[in-house]
Amino acid sequence: MKIGSMGRPLPGYDVVLVDPNTGKEADDGELCLRLDPRPVGLMKSYFGDAAKTAEAFRDGYYHTGDMASRDAEGVITYVGRDDDVFKSSDYRLSPFELESVLIEHPAVAEAAVVPSPDAVKLSVPKAFVVLAAGYQPGPAVAEDILRYCREHLAPFKRIRRLEFGELPKTISGKIRRVELRGTEVARHGDGPLPAGLGVEYTEEEFPNLKD
C-alpha cells in the first residue's frame, strides 16, 4: 500500500494511461479502460447523449477525463481532472496535489487552486482559500500560508498568489474552478475587471518570502 495512491487495477478492468498529446499508452496520462474485452461493469452509453458517448468511447478506450501517473510497481496515483491540470513554466501542475498541501495548514478549511495568467511563466498557481474558524483574512495569515507552501512544495509548484473568500460551487457541492479561472483571466488579462474582486496577496509583497 502506498499512501496517497489509488493502488492497482481490480481484476476485470484493463486500466491504462494514455498520453493526451500522442494518444499512446504511457506512465503518465489520462486514466482509460481498454474496451477489448469490454469490462462487464462499464456502462453502455450516456443516456440520450450520443455526442458525449462518442467522446468518451473512442480509439478503443473508455476515457475517464482523470489524469494519473503509474510507478515502476504498477501503482497508480491520481493527479487531477484533465481540464483542471495546467502548465506553469512548462511544468504540468495538479490542483489536487497543491490543494492537498494547502489544507494541511491549520488556518485553511477549504482551498481551490487555478492557473493565474503570468507574462513570464504563462501561468502561476493561485489559491482561493476559505479560512478555518478563528482566523481572519489579512496579510499575516496570507504570508504564513505562502511560507508553509514554500516549505512543503517544490519551487516550481509553489503557490504564488492567494485570495481569501467563499468558493463558488455547484448544487452538488463541487467547486466551480471554471468560474475562478475566468476571474483570474479577467484580473490579469486585458479585459475589464469584474465587480467584487477580493484582495489578492502575492509572494512579491512579503520580503521574507523572496529567494
Description:
The chain has helices spanning 50-56, 95-102, 139-152, 177-188, and strands spanning 15-18, 25-26, 28-34, 57-58, 61-70, 76-81, 86-88, 91-93, 108-118, 122-131, 161-164, 200-202. The model has no long low-confidence stretch (mean pLDDT 88). It is α+β, with helices and mostly antiparallel strands. It is 19% helix and 31% strand. A hairpin with a 2-residue loop joins strand 4 and strand 5 (61-70). It folds into two domains: 15-81, Luciferase, Domain 3 (Luciferase, domain 3); 86-209, GMP Synthetase, Chain A, domain 3. The chain is globular. The strands form three sheets. Strands 1, 2, 3, 4, 5 and 6 form a six-stranded antiparallel β-sheet that branches. It has a four-stranded mixed β-sheet with strand order 9-10-11-12. Strands 7-8 form a two-stranded antiparallel ribbon. The chain contains four helices and twelve strands, in the order E-E-E-H-E-E-E-E-E-H-E-E-H-E-H-E.
